[in-house]
Amino acid sequence: SIIAFVALNAQEANIGQNTQESMQSLEDMILLPPLTLDDIEDDDTDSHHDHNHDNLTQYGFSGHIGVFNKTNLGKTKDNYNAFSASLGLTYSLQNTLFFGLGIYAITPLYEYPKYNAIKNYIDTKFLTNTAYIKYAGDSFFDITAGRYHEDRDWLKHYVQGIGVDVRYDLFEVWANWVDDQAHANREHVSNFDIYKDAYGGEFLWAAGITLNIPYMTIAPYYYAMNKFFWSVGGKLKSKLVKKEGFGYTTTLHYAYLNSKIDNLEGNHSHDHSHSSLAGDSSIIWFDQEINYSFKNGSLLFGGGYVQVWKSYFELASIGNMSRFETHSH
């Protein structure tokens, strides 16, 4: 396949908190797609949390206009291009209470076979992808409710629900209740109906603890859909930086998923197509990243190993944050 994306991004930030829809810099106007759908969405929207409250001004906006093209040179034809645009607005009161509203629009310009994009990639041409209220109490406590972009282990994309973060010293405790989920990026836009179609409207619970000690992060977590599965796991992450410009990040991640059903009868067409078979599964992966920084940039390289046991690892459908394929063995 040949894939290309060209976009014009705009951002006006007169607010201490990052807007939920801040876009990439113009230096990245021409992009090749990252390895996973989750990375693609993160490229189109910067969801990193910024807890700087020094600036007391009150507004921010961001948006993009872009064209995406995919051409498959193989026997299976999967070709389309699409025009997309987005606009996100954020308003704050004393940089403590934030209100956000964002829209995302996409339409196919060319499809081959006919209706390829509409059937497989564009579930809706217009989406209200963010509509939230957020309270940020200095660096200790945050709570967000509504539609917003989330970026947890195994929980990414746009979610509809509530997210809480509590930080104290070396500890962070987080929790999410998610009613539904949607995608909005340069390749694919879906409604907030993924859980409705795939899981019969079941909601997701998730919680975790992060301990940051010198050179090491320890992060256990728990995820559950009451009628479908529960999962427990965690990761160890070590980051070392040397004066010569080299940085080394090592991650070891393991999760076990206990399935409460033997098969899934729902629709998994939201870029999560897989066999209807379900069951207990687990995943382990090792990831070694080496970053060399120099005066005008950096070079990133590395490698890793992933193993999925038994059945399809269902959490990877909700949010895959790995560089590697983590759905099935």
Model description:
The protein is mainly beta and 329 residues long. 7% of the residues lie in helices and 55% in strands. It contains 4 helices and 15 strands. The chain has a 15-stranded antiparallel beta sheet. Strand 12 and strand 13 (246-259) form a beta hairpin. It is globular. Mean pLDDT is 80; it is low at 16-40, 46-55 and 268-275.
Write the layout of secondary structure elements.
Layout: E1 2-15, E2 30-31, H1 37-44, E3 58-71, E4 79-93, E5 97-112, H2 116-120, E6 126-137, E7 141-149, E8 158-168, E9 171-182, H3 194-199, E10 204-213, E11 216-225, E12 229-241, E13 246-259, E14 281-294, E15 297-310, H4 315-318
Antiparallel strand pairs: 1-2, 1-3, 3-4, 4-5, 5-6, 6-7, 7-8, 8-9, 9-10, 10-11, 11-12, 12-13, 13-14, 14-15
Shape: globular
Strand order within the widest beta sheet = 2-1-3-4-5-6-7-8-9-10-11-12-13-14-15
SSE ordering: EEHEEEHEEEEHEEEEEEH
Using only C-alpha atoms, the radius of gyration works out to 20 Å
The largest β sheet comes out as: 15 strands, antiparallel
In which range does the helix fraction lie?
under 10%
Compute the number of strand runs. 15
Provide the residue-averaged pLDDT: 80
Task: Give the amount of beta strand, in percent.
Answer: over 45%
Q: Give the low-confidence spans.
A: 16-40, 46-55, 268-275
> Which structural category do the helix and sheet elements fall into?
mainly beta
Number of helices: 4
The span between the termini is 24 Å
